[in-house]
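Now for one specimen:
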Amino acid sequence: MDFNVKKLVRDAGTALSRVVQLTEEKLGTSEKTELDAHFENLAERSDTTKLWTEKILRDTEAVLTPNPGNRVEDFLFDKIEKKRPNRLSNLEYLGLDMMEAGNDFGPGTSYGNALIKVGQCQQRLGQSERDFITAANHCYITPLRKFLDGEMKTIIKERSLLESKRLDLDACKNRLRKARSMQGQQNKEGVSPEVLLEQAEKDLRVAQSEFDRQAEITKLLLEGISSSHAGHLRCLQEFAETQVRYHAQCHQIMQDLQRELGSLSLTTPGAAPYQPLVPQSTDSGTTVQNGLQRARVLCDYDAKDATELSLMVDEVILVQEISEDEQDYLMGERGNQKGKVPKAFLEMLAF
């Protein structure tokens, strides 16, 4: 392999002089060209945007893919442009095991049938979760990562180049000051001070021009952060809407399961009555929507005919008034079961 020794020496000398220059600036023994306040504000906003975008991106990825090992694996597959593995979610594994257990116990048994239904529900929840993760990656994760890998990297590169131009400019200013201080003195290299001064002034003009041009380019890129924020806002809105749809789907799936389990308790001999959860009201009192109230059964009650509802001690049911003329009975509900129940066997509950 061929090495350009002169270039290596020159680069090493430049790097060393930069270190010395930065050290002198830190110590206050050398002047530093300062950028205007507007530019500094833009640069600070860019740094803040980069910091929080990276953090939010990491947090969102951790929410969508909790397993760090899976995140690393997905990252590697993306880098080599290979399709990600189609791994099952924890909900889907739970659903599969529940359905397998239900089939093992027997679909004809109450417990086996319920396991299969709940397992199928977990499968649907897992699929909804998978769809949500895919949509969230598309509408939120991908744009943020594209911003960091594209626009933000360009800004960092141009700011680094601007800093290099700034150091060149300050070095030229130092050489010019040195050349002016040497006016009237004999140069050891035999070059007249006037020639050195003229060369230093020329180098300064070139360095100032390059610095100003780079500063303008960098400033335009930094001002583009406002447009990036607007784009991120749209992505955030899409992410929130995707999350709303996901939770609505999950809610609907669980409501369907609740109805199925309520129906199962009616058709399965010997099965304990299923008590669906009733959303609590924030208002004081016992009244809920549609005039229903919660009530706890004080003791067992056997229905006298098909119009009544049998009760088990300590179970909680929903009740409502039948009519003004009916003072001793209420209409009770347990899942899909309905029937008259005696008031004397009930204790009204507050929400």
Summary: The two ends are 82 Å apart (CA to CA). The first helix runs from residue 5 to 27. The chain has two domains: 31-244, 289-348.
